[in-house]
Amino acid sequence: MNNMNRFITFFIVFFVTVFAIYSQTDLEMLKNGISITVSKKGKLEKEIEKNGYRKQDITNLKILGNVNAKDFKCINEMTALKYLDLSDVNILPGRSFTIKTIEKGEEVVKIKCKIEDANVLGDNMFYSLNNIRLVKLPKNIEKIRMNAFSGMQNYDIYFTSTPPIIENMECLGECNTIIVPSSYIDSFMLSFGKYQNKILKDNAPDTYELNVSNIALDYYLKGAYPYVKHLKIKGKLSKNDVNNLKKCINLESIDLYDATIQDVDNLEKWGNLLADDVKKNDTLIYLENEYKALDNKRLLLEKERKTIEKKKIELEKQLQYKFLRALIGLSNEELEKEYKNDNVSTSYYVQNKVFNELLGKELNMELEKLDSSQDPEDFEHAQAIIDGKIIGLEEDYEIISDEMEYYVKQYEFEKQQAYQKINECSSIPNDLFKCFEKIKDIVLPNNTIIISEKSLPLNGVTIQMNKEHIVMCKNMYY
Questions:
Q1: Which fold has domain 3-203?
Q2: Most-buried pick from 250, 261, 340, 416 (CB within 10 A)?
Q3: Is the pTM of this model over 0.70?
């Protein structure tokens, strides 16, 4: 995996982890906040005191009614605030407010904020809220200025209606999560294209039965991944589907019985291993051995033929026929005697033994005549006998070659079929289940044939699989 892929994977995991936290905690926290109704604009602080609270102690607040710049000044003075629900407020224009902050030691920095238009989120409206984790925006918000969230860190934005006009989309770059109404998920995905990985639905089911044969997994689960606890999938998952599946980090059970899921990065490797696992049938093995044996005999005869030719030339030149016995080798009886008395080496013994058996009676008789012969024609006659035997071997070659051709083609076809099988069945990637820390039940695809090393969880997980189909499985941990 290159550095860019690692970078992308890290941020996918990071954002999904954030989703999981807010789907279970922060959204619930909004339901438990202090509720303050502002009956008259600019009176938020008085209403807080009237209800017996101190603004600097409030961590979770829901405001209702009409608010203006003075009210936002009060909000910025609530430095302990973590959860702010503005979904039922109207932001009224007019006036401005100044926020005083201490930065760089004792230097006082003044930030001026002005609300110029109704239901517009102006610049620096939450500047002092350094501890804020989640802001739920007004339902009637119409526009967000480019520096509306300036000063905030590690926060989440909760939209409560259709996407408003955003002066500069970069203003959402620092937020962790963008929570949106489930009914408007498609609109937000379209409008917030570059921040799709941050978008989370405000609510979603925890159980799904999906068919991904013609529709991507993301179509069903976009913005809902961290809510998913129980999942049943049919059809073939693409590489993108597999990557998106890993976002379901709260998953407790998954049923892939009728699904096909493949380790696409290793398909060629798995295919080759499956092909290599195909065994040759007994007939092909026999023919190959026979073919090899014939070849060895042919090579031996050709070697001896050259030896005879060489010796014949020497005899013609020197008329030294006493070397004839050395030419044809020892007879079987003499060979055994010499070998028993350690007068010849093992290699010489084996070579001559095979040679004597190969030549047969006819050639041996002809060669024995050469013992007392000084006629080069006798040598030519011996050569002719060897040539005839070589021709016979070559004819046997052709017969065996023709027969082998059929079985070799059959063998290659079976290997190709085994290779293609990987594109029809399931191979489990070794990192598929690593993200599912809460997983308890796994049903692997019924057509699983390969389970990668260490691809399954270690302990405490029930795993159902069709072991009869699995042809390759190495160091499984489950």
A1: 3.80.10
A2: 261
A3: no
